[in-house]
Write the structure tokens for this entry.
Amino acid sequence: MSTLTICICVAFITGYLCIALESLTRVNKAAIALLMCVVCWTLLMVDPASFYPAVTGDSVIHHIAEVIEHHLGDAAGTLFFLMGAMTIVEIVDSNGGFNFVRDTMKTRSKRKLLWRVAFMTFFLSAILDNLTTSIVMIMVLRKLVQSRGDRLIYAALVIISANSGGAFSPIGDVTTIMLWIKGVITTQGVISEIFIPSLVSMIIPAAILSMHLNGKFDKENNLPKAEVSQFTKVQRDIIFWLGVGGLIFVPIFKTITHLPPFMGILLVLGILWTTTEIFHYNTAEDDTMAKRVSDIMSKIDLSTIMFFLGILMAVAVLQEVGVLTLLGQGLDATFEGNHYLVTGIIGVLSSIVDNVPLVAGCMGMYPVQAAGDLAVDGIFWQLLAYCAGVGGSMLIIGSAAGVVVMGLEKITFGWYMKKITWIVFVGYLAGIFTYWLEKTFIF
């Protein structure tokens, strides 16, 4: 590893520590992420030829511009998907669409609500995806839980349940989608063998978190009636099913058209936007202005978007200089033959850096074999799907779901690491052990 590569790693680690210590430095994490991104790319430009020996002369500058545009395109796809999903959920929420979900889940018992949130998030994330599900559930929780202290616990559980639920579904998480499209896991294989470990990784943390919740909500303070627009119940139901049904349709749209997922989100947003504008024809002028989508879009937390952009582009530098590949090769050499340890460590690393380049690196490093752990639906690939998905819950910035919830509920990195990380780790190990039992005695 060259001196310049080490400097890039130091810059990334320093920025990461500043993000982790946001509650102490009181500097917004988005600002640090953007600085970290620019510093890492600037260091790469000190001697770009050393990282691209095959590119000669002045063409290396042009090549790097293309590389940055490629990574920016990938990041933009994720960001537009995020903004579209957040806007859709905001539209449904602001027009009373989630009242049905709220009424279905409402209970005065704090522990009963916890288990209802856990299972609904778990299964919903397998149908939609963990990112969209997290946004939906946080919006519902805001109507159900008024105490911020209690809601932080529920929000942490949403992150855990969403990532666990996404791990056993081929469309539930971006990493499982990658492995599924690559053909190293099948729909039947990942659902039948990863479902129970994923469920265990959710149930154990939920059981531990339930110990922090006692008693019932105050009747007069909990579950207030939501203030909705002048839409009729039929109109609110249409908005709900267009929004949620549209989100479910996004993976189908991608399969049919082969377009990126954010295109499907934009399609749903366009339809929902048009529908609400038509419904507003017969409402009062003040109500119309308050509920228009253009007004809703202005409320999106841009700092979360900028943070996401900075993190994704900073990790892209580590991918370009070969740090992630070296890391994977080092793991493979150190724990040769023990894919439980290799994938387990990859899962822990996925909570620190983005799991997408980690999984992409693994797919490039390990060729698919006809038989054994590296065969289609082999131990390595199935565990990689589980560990990369569930492992991202260990730190709040380790997954897209965590970053979104962090922005929506203003959860600090330090609080999550102190209160939640060890709980997730226990469930994570329990899930791996459950998978080992399955492979040893069942499959």
Q: What stands out?
A: The two ends are 42 Å apart (CA to CA). DSSP finds 22 helices and no strands in the chain. The chain has a mean pLDDT of 83. Residues 128 and 247 are 6 Å apart (CA to CA).
